[in-house]
Design goal:
Elements: H1 8-20, H2 28-39, H3 44-54, H4 58-67, E1 79-84, H5 87-91, H6 94-105, E2 118-123, E3 135-137, E4 140-142, H7 150-155
Parallel strand pairs: 1-2
Antiparallel strand pairs: 1-3, 3-4
Helix pairs in contact: 1-2, 1-3, 2-3, 3-4
Length: about 160
């Protein structure tokens, strides 16, 4: 696999983040959160920069990235779609909603559409059980979603 070439401006921004946290290794999670905001995900090359700047082992950075579900090493789409599969959502038809997203986007859970527009994931609980089934697209929350609603929801992002 070829090495990813990181944009110099983004690398400088990441190094500034490390400096802002005084290169403190105990701030690794905060640095990684900001790194993911800058790059959209945390490929090995970003992890190496963080490890270099904070003077920690790359394996330690990788361990943190893979331990916390918030972090991703796979690029997300511009519109990340998450379908809640918690108990309340599941019993109210979330699986059918997820199946419809998979069908219309032609991706599996964990994948991104070839145009980079959407990525699809499922999660355990959004904390909006009264609105079950719940879908989030970016920061926007959709409640009481039925499979028939998916096409119209996606149309909002065309």
């Amino acid at each position: 696999m070829a090495e990813l070439k990181l944009a110099d401006s983004k690398v400088r921004e990441l190094k500034d983040v490390c400096k802002k946290f005084d290169y403190d290794k105990s701030e690794l999670i905060n640095v990684l959160h900001q790194a993911q905001s800058i790059f959209g995900y945390l490929p090995a090359e970003v992890q190496e920069v963080v490890a270099d700047e904070l003077k920690v082992n790359v394996a330690h950075v990788y361990g943190v990235v893979t331990f916390y579900s918030f972090f991703t090493m796979i690029p997300k789409g511009r519109h990340p779609v998450s379908v809640c599969m918690g108990t309340a959502c599941y019993v109210r038809g979330a699986e059918k909603v997820l199946d419809e997203f998979k069908h219309l986007l032609n991706v599996k859970v964990g994948e991104t559409t070839p145009d980079g527009k959407f990525s699809l994931s499922s999660l355990r609980c959004v904390g909006a059980c009264g609105l079950a089934p719940v879908v989030t697209i970016g920061e926007k929350v959709y409640g009481r979603v039925a499979a028939e609603d998916v096409k119209n929801i996606l149309a909002d992002y065309s």
